[in-house]
Amino acid sequence: MLRLNGQFNLNASVVCGDKSIAHRALIFASVADGTSVIGNMPLSADVLTTADCLRALGADIRFDGNTVTVEPIAEVKDNVTLNCANSGTTARLLAGLVAGLGVNATFIGDASLSKRPMDRVLQPLERMGAKFSKPKNCLFKCLGGTPLYGSTVYAAVDSAQVKSAVLIAGLFAEGSTTYVEKLSTRNHTELMLAALNANIKVDGQAVTVSKSRLLPIKTDIPCDVSSMSYIVAAAVITGKPFVCSNVLLNERRLGFVRVLQRAGADIKCIQEETRFGETVGSIIVKKDGFGAMYASAADVCDAIDEVPLLAALSVTMRGTHVFEGVGELRHKESDRIKAVLHMAAACGQKAEYANGRLIVVSNGVLEKNPRFCSFDDHRIAMCEVVLCIASGGGSVDRAPFDVSFPQFETALGLNIYRLGLIGGTDIRKSLSPLLMEYLSTVANVNCSYDLLVQPDGVTDERLLDIISRYDGLNVTMPYKMRVAQLLNADCLSVNTVGRNVVPQSTDGYGMVTALREMGVDFENKHLYVAGAGGAAALCVQTLLSYGCKIQIFNRTKRHADVLINKFNLSCNVSNPYGMLSFVPECDYEKSLPLPDSCKFVFTAAYKGTSGLKDKALARGITYVDGLRMLYHQGAKSFALWTDTALQDNYGGFAEFLRSVQFCFN
Ligand code: S3P
User: Fold this and answer.
1) Is 161 close to ligand 1, i.e. is its CB under 6 Å away?
2) Position 607 confidence tier, pLDDT thresholds 50, 70, 90
3) What is the structure's pLDDT at 594?
4) Whose CA is nearest to atom 11 of ligand 1?
C-alpha cells in the first residue's frame, strides 16, 4: 500500500538512461568484437534482468554505478535457464539472440510475464529455422543446434520487440533477413546496429540485416523519455515548470509529447545532438493546461507505454478524449485497458473500450482520495501516483516502480516513509495496511506499507537485511520474540522496529488504551489470560506492571508453563474480574471458561467468530474488541516511525472504523 498526500516536487536530474536502449546495448555488447563501456545505464529491475540472462549465456558484465563494462561472450553456455522475471523485452529480444547463438535455453518469468503472448516472437523465428517447445512451467524452451536462414517476415502485430528479435536472429542467419512493418515501431535496434557497423539497410517500412561483426559500444545512454513522461505529466497538470536535458528525443518515442502538444499543452522539445544514431535534447514545460486529446493508431504506436498515462491525464481534464488502436495494451505487464477503466472509475469518471478504441469522458472534477489498484504493473502504479497528485491525495495498493524507474519517488520528491509488516502467510489478511493508509491520511504524511511474508526457515541474516531496508516495520507472529532477540531488545517480544526507533512492543499500550477507552478498570485485578504467544506474553507483562494477578489458559501446557515460570504466575486465581484472550478462532477458544465474576472480555483476534465474545454479549458484560487494540498499537507505532504526534490518536478509533467500514460490509 502506498498512500500519498498529493504534495510533490520535480527533480528530473535523477532520471537514468533509456530502458529500451539499455536492453539493446547490453545484448549487442555481449556479441560485439571487443570490450564495451556504456554510461548512464539505468539500474531498473528489467535491465538488470537482461544483464543476468546475458551473464548466464557467458557474457562478463560489470556495473560500477551507472557505468557498465561488458566483455562479450567468449564461449556461449548451453542448457541455461534464463529468468526474465517481469521483462517482456528481455524474453523476446533474447529469444532472437539465443536462436541465433544456436544453444538450448529455458526461458522462465514471473506470473505477469507467464501470461503474455510469446508466439508472436517464436513463430517468425521458427520460420527462420529456430526450434522452440512450450513445456509447462516455463515461457518456452529454445532447442539449439538448428541453423537459421534469412527470411522475409511481415509484421503480424505492431511490435518493436518482435521486430528486434527477428533482426537480432538475422545477424546470425545464412543470407539476409527482412522485416516489414505495418505501423512504424521504436527503431532503437536499427539505429544501434547501424552505429555498430552492422550490415543493415532501412528502406521505408522494411529493414534488412545479415551476418555482421559489431563494434564494441562506447557511449552514454540518453535519459529515458518514458520515465520522464511521468514528470512531464505532473508538470502539465499542476503547472510546476520544469526543464530536463540529455533526454532521448527519438520521434518513435515521442507520441506522448505529440498528443499533448496537439491538445494544447505547453511542452517543447529541443534537439541538441545525435548520439549513437539517437536524437538527444531537452524537454521544457512552462505551464499547465491542455484540452481534449486525440491519439491516432500511429500516435499510440509511438506512445505504446505512455497511453495509460495519457489516459490518466485525460481523466483529469474536462472533455471527451479518444485513443485509437490501443488493443495491444491488453498484452502488457497487465491488461492496461482494464487498468485504465479502473483508474477512470476510481476518479469518478467514465472510460469505455470497444474495437480497439478507448474513449475517456471527464467532467474534470476528481473524486477525493481515490483508491487505486496497480495490477502489479509498474507503469500503471506510476500513472496512479500522478492521479493521486492531481486529486490532492490518494492511495495505490502496490507500487513496483523499481521495474523500470527506481528513482521515481525521488524524481517526484514524494518523501515516502517506507513501512511494512513482517510475519507469516497470515499477514495477507492483515488490516494493518488499511490502518496505515488511514493514519498517513490523517497525519498528512506519505507512506508505503508492504506485507513481507516470510517463509518458514527464513534466516536471521535475511530478517536483519529486510529490517535495515525500511524506515519502520511492524513484526507479527511468529517473529515477535525472534526479532526481539535479534535486535537485543530489552523486552520479550517486539512489534515495532525502525531506523530511528528503539525496538519495542506497542501491543501493551494498545491493549491498555483499548481497555481504558471502554471504561474497564483493570488495575490491581485478578484476571484470566488465554494464550501464551508473543502478544500474550507482552500483555501479561504489561498487566503485571499494573498490579494484576494472572492465571494462564493455553492449549499447549508446555508453552503456558514457560510464561508461568518466567513471570512467576499463580496457577489459581480466584474470582477473576475479566478474561483476556490472545488465541484465534478455534474450538479451544469456544471451550474457555468465563466465570460469573468476570465484568469484561477482551479478545485480541479481530477476525472470525469468538466464543468468549458471544458469551460476553449474551451476559451483557463489557466486550473490548481486538480491532480497538490494533488501532491503538498501530497509531503508536506510526507515531514512532514518522515522528508525528499522536494528534488526538489521529482522529480516534471510531473515525478509523468509519473510514474502513467498506471492508466489513
Ligand atoms: C519495447 C517495445 C514495446 C514496449 C516495451 C519495450 C522495446 O513493446 O511496450 O516496453 O524495447 O522494444 P512491444 O514491442 O510489445 O509493443
Assistant:
1) yes
2) confident
3) 96
4) 20
